[in-house]
């Protein structure tokens, strides 16, 4: 007796591994920009984080008795590591990347049941764990020192920064959001503190202190638009996210420009673009219903703005996304699409008279 | 409810709704080269096998026996009950018996069929031509039923049942389904191109039967020649509109086509007549045209033979009952051993395991697919909740959630979130990057739930019987005991009376 084949007898989707590759391709320009701006230490940290994730994935799969090679081939572990590295301070010591990567894969992914089962985005959960546990290392920002420029560390001194003594004294600098928060706490007018720390065009290309990969806001946005065009991700979550940040920011800024940042400053600083296009759109941890995706994106954006504006932390992307991750099952439950031929409450449509 | 607006410029709202409708998928059409070939008749095979069940409903009952000589068009098996269809001889010849043959069925099991050995003369019974418009609607439905016409798009629902829907209450709109959204298939395309007159005349006859005032013919935009041919033929009939619909799977699904053309949604627990529409396939219309105008029963159909393993893919006119091996041979055989033989389209068709299986009334295609075409080597991976299936589902279901519940064994929960509404189109499986056979889960769950329901009803019936029996036994026992007690009391009384009398006598 031959095998029974069920329909359909054709197939039309790209496999998971290809999806992950496309996401990495979209991340590449912003990543290379980060490498160039922050130099060798950033490259070393990125490699360490990725390796840590891949090793942790291989370990977990082996413990679960699954084939290791095919597990690594789907690319999801590498992508998690990549995203985590993008959100780290570029000159952070190697163990930040290593601990974060292992935590992301082992605790945030496999403890929940592996690929597709995790409630929280592993990269963001790991970042928050690192931020809470190692606040000093996680908030030591560096002004960009492009590769080959004066003051950029060579490969040898980069090894020392990442694997040895750490960031030399006197090199750290504040990120835009840090700066604003500190100045605001001192009672300095927002417009004034923003004016001397933020220059939109250069900042959005990555010429500012910040995480390894999130400073090139425009490059990230371009990568995100590429993903939408290739139908790897939907437009709903990113769009809702950006609106969720921009709309309240614009309203508040209109009412009290001295106390609230303008929307463009919100959109182009910190990790908004990385969060909106690459992290909030994580399939596993975001809703799958159309309305749910709008709600999820808007919630991420709004929470980000709230945390940035009134929270103790200068940046709120990771917290906002984790909070909305937690709400995802609930959102999915309450936003099921209307079924064809039925009313929203599930009852069948009535026959029309003829 | 009036007739829907069918002008070439639908209202803005309808256009907007159409634009926002994102359901479905765009599979690679692969209609060529078969779609470019004219329909060619296949020579008669040495034996025709005519399964008694080629339609939805009760199997037909044979009225011939082994040794009978029959003529083309002669009744071989009559319909049983309201939902059934008769079967006629596709050619003249000798009935050699009624036996089990392999049939296209998911079980892979055989079924009884009438075996006919053609004598090569192809003699027909004499047919009478009729003007359809001199017939009453009821008479049209009766003749269509007698001709054994069933839904030719694959559903094989007896066509006459739908024609009777308008008997008490006319149905204002007839839609002819020329969508043919399955990849590879082009049998309807060729029919509309080569015989638009049959399709249009069939449509007018159906419209008369159901009382429809307007006729919409929906054809996917990837068939411009068919659209042009139909428009040309239908030009003299102002009530007919040929509409190009987007080439998107499953546009040929009845509910989706109705929604696209009229903006109306068929109620989940209703049918298309509830929104004033009746839908027939273009092939069915042509069959009805022949049945009514010439009295010719349904004994042949157009079949697309295609797939990467077929040497010369083409469209064939096939007598019902011809084994698929004859079709493959006529198309030059295989270029390589096919990975899968499919009857029907690749999205909803049935994998078959034998080339002895005959073509039946609902077989629109025979595909010999290579391993590359079926992508069968890809193993199922974990669901990454990408939501592709949610976006693609034409019904608005959440296939990933339903599958998760079925996997967990909670079939009732999957029914709660819409399993009953699944039309099994397979779009979700097609778009799944993890290659999860979603539609297979759903078909399994539907079957399992149905069998549980049957079981439950059986159990309830048994319980009722048992309870009735024990109640009866109790009652009988009680009655017996009461009777015994009565008799005993009687005896005692008699005894007592006798004793009393004896006493009296004694004292006296």
Structure description:
The complex is a heterodimer of chains A (354) and B (508). Chain A has 354 residues and is mostly helical. Chain A is built from 16 helices and two strands. Chain A has helices at 16-63, 68-73, 76-86, 94-109, 122-133, 135-138, 155-163, 176-185, 190-195, 200-204, 217-229, 236-255, 263-268, 272-279, 290-310, 317-334; strands spanning 141-142, 172-173. A two-stranded antiparallel ribbon of chain A has the order 1-2. In chain A, helix 1 (16-63) crosses helix 11, helix 4 crosses helix 5 and helix 12 (236-255) packs antiparallel against helix 14 (272-279). The longest helix of chain A is centred in the first third of the chain and has 48 residues, at 16-63. With 508 residues, chain B is an alpha/beta fold. Chain B has helices at 12-20, 137-146, 159-163, 187-194, 196-210, 224-234, 254-262, 282-294, 324-330, 371-374, 388-392, 399-407, 411-416, 427-431, 438-507, and strands at residues 40-41, 48-51, 61-62, 69-70, 75-78, 87-88, 93-102, 110-118, 173-178, 214-220, 240-245, 277-281, 300-306, 314-319, 340-343, 350-352, 365-369. The model of chain B is unreliable at 1-7 (pLDDT under 50). The chains are: A mainly alpha (354), B alpha/beta (508). At the A-B interface, helix 1 of A face helix 11, helix 14 and helix 15 of B.
């Amino acid at each position: 007796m031959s095998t029974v084949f069920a329909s359909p007898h054709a197939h039309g989707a790209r496999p998971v591994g290809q999806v992950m590759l496309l996401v990495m391709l979209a991340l590449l320009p912003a990543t290379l920009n980060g490498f160039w701006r922050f130099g060798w230490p950033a490259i070393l940290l990125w490699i360490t984080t990725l390796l840590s994730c891949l090793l942790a994935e291989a370990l977990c799969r082996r413990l679960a008795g699954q084939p290791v090679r095919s597990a690594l081939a789907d690319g999801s572990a590498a992508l998690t590591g990549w995203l985590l590295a993008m959100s780290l301070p570029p000159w952070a010591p190697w163990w930040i990347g290593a601990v974060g990567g292992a935590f992301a894969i082992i605790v945030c992914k496999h403890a929940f049941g592996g690929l597709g089962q995790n409630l929280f985005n592993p990269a963001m959960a790991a970042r928050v764990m690192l931020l809470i546990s190692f606040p000093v290392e996680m908030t030591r920002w560096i002004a960009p020192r492009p590769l080959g420029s004066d003051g950029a560390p060579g490969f040898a001194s980069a090894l020392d920064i990442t694997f040895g003594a750490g960031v030399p004294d006197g090199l750290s600098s504040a990120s835009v959001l840090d700066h604003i928060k500190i100045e605001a706490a001192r009672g300095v007018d927002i417009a004034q503190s923003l004016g001397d720390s933020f220059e939109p065009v250069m900042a959005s290309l990555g010429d500012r202190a910040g995480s390894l990969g999130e400073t090139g806001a425009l490059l990230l946005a371009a990568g995100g638009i590429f993903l939408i065009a290739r139908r790897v991700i939907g437009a709903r979550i990113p769009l809702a996210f950006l609106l969720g940040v921009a709309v309240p920011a614009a309203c508040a800024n209109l009412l009290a420009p001295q106390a609230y940042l303008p929307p463009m400053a919100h959109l182009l600083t910190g990790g908004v673009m990385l969060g909106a296009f690459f992290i909030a759109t994580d399939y596993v941890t975001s809703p799958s219903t159309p309305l749910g995706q709008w709600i999820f994106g808007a919630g991420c954006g709004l929470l980000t703005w709230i945390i940035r504006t009134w929270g103790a932390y200068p940046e709120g992307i990771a917290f906002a996304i984790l909070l909305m991750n937690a709400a995802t099952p609930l959102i999915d439950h309450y936003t099921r699409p209307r079924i064809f031929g039925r009313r929203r409450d599930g009852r069948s449509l009535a026959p029309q008279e003829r | 409810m009036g007739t829907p607006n069918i002008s070439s410029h639908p209202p803005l709202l309808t256009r907007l709704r159409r634009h926002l409708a994102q359901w479905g998928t765009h599979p690679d059409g692969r209609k060529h080269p078969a779609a470019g070939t004219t329909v060619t008749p296949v020579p008669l095979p040495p034996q025709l096998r005519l399964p008694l069940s080629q339609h939805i409903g009760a199997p037909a009952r044979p009225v011939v026996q082994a040794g009978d000589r029959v003529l083309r068009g002669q009744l071989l098996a009559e319909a049983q009950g309201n939902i059934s269809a008769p079967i006629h001889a596709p050619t003249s010849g000798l009935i050699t018996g009624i036996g089990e043959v392999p049939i296209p069925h998911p079980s892979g099991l055989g079924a009884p069929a009438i075996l006919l050995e053609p004598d090569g003369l192809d003699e027909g019974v004499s047919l009478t031509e009729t003007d359809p418009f001199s017939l009453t609607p009821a008479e049209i439905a009766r003749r269509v039923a007698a001709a054994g016409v069933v839904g030719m798009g694959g559903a094989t629902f007896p066509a006459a049942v739908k024609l009777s829907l308008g008997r008490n209450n006319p149905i204002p709109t007839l839609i002819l389904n020329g969508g043919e959204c399955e990849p590879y298939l082009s049998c309807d395309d060729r029919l509309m191109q080569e015989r638009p007159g049959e399709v249009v005349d069939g449509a007018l006859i159906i419209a008369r039967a159901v009382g429809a005032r307007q006729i919409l013919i929906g054809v996917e935009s990837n068939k411009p020649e068919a659209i042009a041919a139909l428009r040309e033929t239908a030009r003299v009939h102002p009530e007919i509109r040929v509409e190009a619909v987007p080439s998107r799977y499953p546009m040929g699904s009845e509910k989706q086509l109705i929604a696209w053309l009229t903006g109306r949604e068929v109620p989940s627990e209703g049918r298309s007549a509830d929104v004033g529409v009746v839908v027939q396939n273009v092939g069915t219309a042509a069959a009805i045209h022949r049945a009514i105008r010439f009295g010719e029963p349904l004994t042949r159909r157009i079949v697309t033979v295609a797939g990467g393993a077929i040497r010369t893919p083409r469209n064939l006119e096939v007598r019902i009952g011809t084994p698929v091996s004859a079709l493959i041979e006529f198309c030059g055989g295989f270029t390589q051993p096919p990975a899968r033989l499919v009857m029907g389209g690749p999205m909803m068709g049935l994998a078959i395991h034998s080339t002895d299986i005959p073509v039946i009334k609902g077989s629109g295609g025979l595909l010999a697919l290579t391993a590359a075409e079926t992508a069968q080597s890809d193993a199922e991976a974990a669901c990454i909740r990408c939501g592709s299936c949610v976006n693609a589902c034409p019904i608005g279901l959440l296939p990933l959630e339903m599958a998760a519940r079925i996997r967990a064994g909670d079939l009732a929960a999957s029914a709660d979130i819409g399993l009953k509404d699944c039309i099994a189109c397979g779009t979700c499986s097609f778009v799944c990057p993890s290659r999860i056979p979603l539609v297979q889960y759903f078909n399994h769950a539907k079957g399992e739930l149905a069998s549980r329901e049957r079981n439950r009803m059986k159990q309830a019936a048994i319980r009722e019987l048992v309870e009735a029996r024990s109640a009866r036994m109790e009652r009988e026992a009680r009655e017996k005991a009461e009777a015994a007690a009565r008799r005993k009391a009687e005896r005692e009384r008699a005894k007592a009376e006798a004793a009393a009398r004896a006493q009296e006598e004694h004292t006296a």
